[in-house]
Every structure is written in structure tokens, then in C-alpha cells.
């Protein structure tokens, strides 16, 4: 009997030592996964009525649902920007993810194909001569599909998201960087009622030789309290129009985009360096701020020591604070 007990204790001791020996420093066996996933997120694909397929990335909110539903942030370039937008949204709360995050991306894995799709979706129509001379990198790509893209978001994607979550439709934000910033700004000027908050990071105002100035003028002409005569208003408008709700716009840009360091002025292609009527982002903001438009709040933020690429990360953080700070 004692021999059997001793034998059992010996086995237990050896097993314990082996377990301790196996618990060594380094990579834990069996813990490796082929890819990293973000908790409480999902993705699905949607085909638009125009026959274009999008990959939708969704981050679920957490914590107690606000009485009127969850705020929601829609953003472009979902394939690349979704994780940083989530991080910025979570940064607005100590413990929770206080908003639904919806990234709009593409099913294509090839970055060249993906780049071509975003160029079409995020740009207003452009003059063919300008494309073939000043903007040659884009002359072989389809452009000018922003209206179709907006219609997909407004008429198809929003209803889908609202069927999955209780959304506060009075707290909707649109964020975009670069071409995405151009799209967000275009949407603000053409359809300001579609979102309550617009965050446009480093918008590509150079597109089509700054033709967005025409949309800006129409926007101001339609809504500015400074318009005093019917002759100054758009054709067919017989009374002063107003924004249907409080609308907020934040425009951000990197310091080195406005003032490149010495020796870097000539690095950008001609289309980027061309001086146009629309000017730079700070000038656009100044004009909107002085237009006297009811229910409109416009802000500008220059990001220190940032160029076009590096400006996106701080712009997301500042933008989500702007959008979600009660």
C-alpha cells in the first residue's frame, strides 16, 4: 500500500516539475493566430443598386445606450482606416466604445484595384484636359463617381446600419482623409442635411483645378444671411434658405502641407502645386466662417509638423473628439 502511495506521489511530483519546466519564457505553444481581430467588430459585403460591391466594417458600441440611440461615425477608406477610427472613438470614453463606427471599404485585395475604386468613388467629375495634363496619374482611371457613392451611403448603407443598431439620427458624422476629405467636403456643400458633423482631413482641394469653389459659392449663395437680393440667389430660389439642423464642420490639415519645409516645395506633382481660386483649407474655412450662415459651426485645425500622410492619425483623434464630445 505504501509502495503504491509513494509511486503515485512520485508521478505527481515529476508531472508538476514538467509543467513548471514547460512554462518557460517566450512564445506560448498554440497561441499563434494567422491574423489579428478587433473585438466586437464585424464585416459584410453590400452590392449597391449601381452594381458596385463594398466591404463594410462595423464596430459595435458598448456601455449603456443613450436614450436617443447611439451616435454613428461613417468613414471612407475602411480597409485601412477602420482600426484607427475605432481607437479614436474609444479614446473619447474611459471604458466604453461610445458610438457605432462604420468603415466603407472594398472587396479587392490588390491595392492598385482598390486605389482605382476609391478614386472613382471619392472624386467629383473632372475636366478631361486637366486630367490629361496636370493630373496624369489619374488620366487612366475612372473619376467623378461621388454622387453614386453618396447615394449608396444615404439610401442603402444607412438603412442597413439602422436596422442593426438603434441609431441617433441627430448625431451622425462623416469622416474622410485626402480624397476622402474631398468627398466629405463635397457632401457637406451639396447635402449638408445628410450628417450633423463633417470632419474633413487634408481635403484634396487641388482636384480639377479647385473646381469645388463652385460648390462653395452655391452653398453660401443659398444659405448666407448676407444675400440680400433675389438677383443674388440661385435661379428658382425665391426666399432665404436655412440649414435644417445644427451642422458642424471641422477641417484639418498638416503644417507641412500648407508650408513645406525648405527644399521640399517642388516634390508634389503640378496639380498639387497649382494656385487656384479656392485657395488652401484655411482660406476656405475663413470664407465659410464669415458667410453668416445660421446653424453652421466651422472650425479649422492645423496639425503641427505633419505632412499629408502623417496628418491623418491626429486628424482622426481630433475629429472624433469634435464629433463625440458632448
Explain this structure.
The protein has eleven helices and eight strands. It has 326 residues and is α/β, with parallel strands linked by helices. An eight-stranded mixed β-sheet has the order 1-2-4-3-5-6-7-8, sandwiched between helices. α2 (78-90) crosses α11 (312-324). The radius of gyration is 26 Å and the shape is globular. The model is unreliable at 1-6, 16-21 and 227-234 (pLDDT under 50).
Write the layout of secondary structure elements.
Elements (H helix, E strand, L loop, with lengths): L1 H21 L18 E7 L5 E7 L10 E6 L2 H13 L9 E7 L4 H12 L5 H6 L12 H19 L2 E11 L1 H12 L6 E5 L10 H12 L23 E8 H4 L11 H4 L7 H9 L6 E8 L8 H13 L2
Parallel strand pairs: 3-4, 3-5, 5-6, 6-7, 7-8
Antiparallel strand pairs: 1-2, 2-4
Helix pairs in contact: 2-11, 3-6
Jot down its keywords.
single chain, 326 residues, alpha/beta, 8-stranded mixed sheet, 11 helices, 38% helix, globular, disordered N terminus
Low-confidence stretches: 1-6, 16-21, 227-234
Helix/strand order, N-terminal first: HEEEHEHHHEHEHEHHHEH
Rounded to the nearest angstrom, the radius of gyration is 26 Å
Please describe the biggest sheet, giving its number of strands, its sense, and whether it closes into a barrel: 8 strands, mixed
What share of residues is helical? 25-40%
Counting DSSP E segments of at least 2 residues, the number of strands comes to: 8
| Average pLDDT score | 88
Number of helices: 11
Main sheet strand line-up: 1-2-4-3-5-6-7-8
Strand content: 15-25%
User: CA-to-CA gap between the ends?
Assistant: 74 Å
**Mass-distribution shape:** globular
Structural class: alpha/beta
